[in-house]
């Protein structure tokens, strides 16, 4: 039962993360984020990656091994 709940937590985290869109959207021709070359986008990308990693590490119910 615990393995099932751990798997469910990982899947829920991945689905929730995939639901976020990049600020400004994407270029419809290339698929590249519109604000890719701005400092604000760099701050967003770093903070988003940090928060995702921190959330996975801090959650005691989420075991990757």
From TrEMBL:
Keywords, alphabetical: Membrane, Transmembrane, Transmembrane helix
Domain PGG: 1-57
Transmembrane segments: 40-58
GO cellular component, one term: membrane
Alphabetical list of Pfam families matching this protein: PGG (PF13962)
Protein name: PGG domain-containing protein
Organism: Ficus carica (Common fig)
């Amino acid at each position: 039962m615990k393995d099932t709940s751990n798997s469910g937590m990982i899947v829920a985290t991945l689905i929730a993360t995939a639901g976020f869109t990049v600020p400004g959207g994407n270029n419809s021709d290339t698929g590249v984020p519109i604000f890719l070359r701005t400092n604000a986008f760099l701050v967003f990308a770093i903070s988003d990656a940090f928060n995702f990693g921190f959330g996975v590490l801090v959650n005691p119910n989420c075991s990757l091994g």
